[in-house]
Every structure is written in structure tokens, then in C-alpha cells.
Protein 1
Amino acid sequence: MTTIAATHRSAIKRYRKRWLDLGLSTEPACRPLAEAGTDRAYQEAGLPSPKRIIWVASPHEATQRIASGLEKETLSSSAWQTVFDSVMNRVVTAIQNRVGREDYLTLRQQFVAPGRKNPLYQLRIQQTSMLRSSFHYGYGCHDADWMAFYDFCEGVHAIQEVNLIHGIMEVARHAGWWCPFETECIVTERPSALNADLLNTPSADKKPIIAYQDGWGLAWLNRIQVPWRALSNPLAITVSEINGTNNLELRRVLIYQYGQERYLKDSGAEVLHQDDFGVLYRLERSPDEPLHVVKVTNATPEKDRTFRDYFLSVPPEMKTARQAVAWTFGKAENDYAPIIET
């Protein structure tokens, strides 16, 4: 720690604690103060206040509204560059000019160090990864570590240029993620549930890491991060959502939650062959290669005396269910004639 950081160690802790409490809050957004913050952010960037504030329940809904609005041309052009980047660059330059680049980097590290120990960084990264969105967001309350840094620079080092982002800081105090456009601004509610200690605990199944009023959020299932509603409301999963998931492990989990046989049926899979060994399916998946799956039933009953079905991926050259099942055991079709499978 440099001298300047060591000198202000207690102040750093105080600012970090104050903003961390805001960043991890699950209290409802204070809409009047958040909207006042957006107005000020636009004005500080030299723009007129947005004509319309669009409140949404979650970053997921925000992403959907933005995609739909841009497609239907009901949203104006993005104002991200003006509201965020240009103003932030001026603030960063002012801080570096005051304390020097080395101390700037060291002080910033005290507040916004990336990694497992920074829950706000993890919230930004993990939610952005699940959204798979290319849109630029202000993270609002989940930018609290950055806001703590700027607040510290203004309060302790009297860097007046920080007042250029007072509007951005107000949104972070009172709301969730937000996305500015020229004449509209989309703002999200804060999460309704947050268990920050689960961010790096993949073994913690069936609890939300974070959840919003509309049911969107994150959770762990079999050590894979999944949308929270895949656990809380699996009936809400759609075939298009599954097919649009590029992460193969996540797609597998979503199919399992949706129901493997139900997924094949709802996806229009073709039954290629059926015999006493199982059912062979082919599913077209443009632009991907077709999926070939064989359904087999375990001959050993479960504890409740039911017999569990399994769906196994097989090569496309399989012609019969028996051949496909035999392939999973590393055998040729004519060599596979089990008395009982386990």
C-alpha cells in the first residue's frame, strides 16, 4: 500500500462500507430520487433530461425491452458514450492529475479490485454473462465499489470534477442497472433477494444467488450457474430459450429441468426407430448439426420402484435404437443382447 493509501486507511474502509451496504441492498428502488439522478446525469453530460423513464423489474427485462425497442425503432439512439464514457474520462483525468497515476491505480485497487473477494465485481460479471447481451449498462447499485472510490476522491482529496458524476452516483444510491438513450432511459429495480456469500459457492444448490421481482436471477445447480427461474419455476423455461443457449453445460441443465422427453416432443424431434431397447430420435437444430438421442429405460428400479428414463446422445449414423444403445456400451449391434442392464 502506498503512503497515500496508508494515510487514509480508515477513510477507505468507511467509504467502502457505506457504499457496499447500498450495493448489496434489496430494498425497493427509490424511484423519485433515482429519476432525479438520471435527469442530473443527462444534464451533467450536456443533454436534455430524458422524456421518458422506463422502469423494469430486472436486467433481463431491460435487455428484452432494449432489444425489442431497437428492433421496432421505438427507442432512440444510445446515449451511453455521452452520459458515461466522456464524463468519466474527465473525472479520471482530474483524479490522476491530482494524486498521480501510481497513487490513482493503488487507490482504485483498494475499492474496485476484481476477483472472488469483491461481491460487486462478481455480481456484474455473473449477471452480464447470463444475460449474453452486448448492450452497455450502468450497473447502478452494483457499481457501488466504483462510486465509493469516486466519493472518496471528492470527500478526502477535494477533487471537484467528481461533481460531474453526481447524477450517476445518485442512480447507484437508489436503483439498479440502467441504460441511457437520447430521449428514454431504462432503469431497473434493485434485486428482491441477494445471497452474496453464494457467489463463489457452486455447491449451494436450490438457493438464489440473486433474484428479482419478475423471477429472473442466478442460482447454482449441479455446480453450473443457471437462471434462478430454472429452479424456482421450471415451467417458465421455453424451447427457444434452451435452443438459444450456447453454453452446452447450461443447455443440458435447462433441458433436464424442462424435461428431456418433453423437450424432444416440443422441439419437433423425429422418431427414427423404436424397439425393445429404446427410442431413437433425430432433432434438427439449425444452424447446428442435428442432434441424435436414444431414450433408454433403466432396468433397475429406483427406491420408489419406478423405472428412470435416460436420454443419451449418439452418433448420426445410428439406424436403430438397439444399435444406438449398443454404441453407448462400446459394442456392435449384433453383439448387444443383455439379459439385464444396470
Note: The mean pLDDT is 90.
Protein 2
Amino acid sequence: MQGKFTIRTIIPLIVIGLVMFCCGVGIGTNSSSKRTATETTEATGIASQPTTQPTTQPTTQPTTQPTTQPTTQPTTQPTTQPTTQPTTQPTAPPAPTAPPAPTAPPAPSGGTIIIRNVNKEEEYVELENRGTSAQDLTGWKIVSELGNQECLLSNVIIDPGAILLVWTNNPNGGGYNCGLKQKNIWNNKEPDPAALYDAQGNLISRFP
């Protein structure tokens, strides 16, 4: 009848509705499955892309700094210092030294003219020529060693074997007179040797 639904008309509608519902659910599920599959594939593709970055880095770096440093430095300061200080205490004065001993006169040269004797009281010297020829005594001298007085001989010749008296100051005594202003040159109380030198300054004779 028009305007009324019967069971026969309702059942086909229910069936059609169920079918449509099931188709809609299937389509949605397929779409969701496709979407999920697509996302999974994209994710897998992303994960399976080759790594373009280098996986390893060089573990060693070149050493640009010298590995060793000099162990010694030049010493600019002196290693030693003077250990002694100048003494400020005055040093003891040196002990006085003994005066040098008088040197002995040189030995006579061994000539033939000798001093034979010295008479200190009378102030004369005896010269003797023991040679075989005459001897010129010019430039010779007789010296009193204690007082260092000299008698210079001039223009006098002594013959071989002769004895000549040489006076300090006695023009009348005979022989040779020195003519010294000091009449006494020989010391009567102390040893006072007489020395005879030739014109070249060589010691010829000495008495005693």
C-alpha cells in the first residue's frame, strides 16, 4: 500500500545499507592502509638513503708544535762568586832585614908590584917591584879601605927589585908624597887594609 513500509520493503533497504556501510568501511581501511604503507615506504626510503657524510674522521692531527724543547738555557750569570773578601785588618809590618854583609874586595891580579908593608904611625906605604923590569905607576892609586881615602900616583917609576915609600903628606920623607890635606888616613886602632889599583881600576895588591 502506498505510504506504508512493509517488512519486505524494509529488509532490502537494511541489506543495501549494510552493504554500503561495509563498502565504506573497506574503502576507508584501504585508504588508511595505503596511507600507512606510503608513510612507511617514505620512512623506509629516508632511512635507507646512503650516508653522504664521512663516517670516520682522521684520528691523528699533524703535530705542528715541536715535541721537544731545549732542556738547557744559557747561563748568563757567573756560576762562581769570589769567596774571599779583602782583609780590613792591617797586616803586620815586615821584619827588618839584616844589612848586607860587605863584599870582599876582588883578589889581586898577581902583578909584580906588591904592598910590602903599611906603617900607620908614620903614615906611609911600602911598594916593592918584584919583577924584572921597571914599572910606570902613573894613574895608579893607593886606597885606605876603612876611610876610603885615596892617594893618586903620577909620574913615578919603580925599578925592578926596588922599594918605594908612598907618604900621606911628608915632602921630606923621601920616596913619593901624596900631599893629602888630611895627614892621617890610616887608622891605628882598627884594621884598615891598604889596596893598590892600576890605571885600569884592577886590584893589584892588598895588605894585610
Note: Helices lie at 7-47.
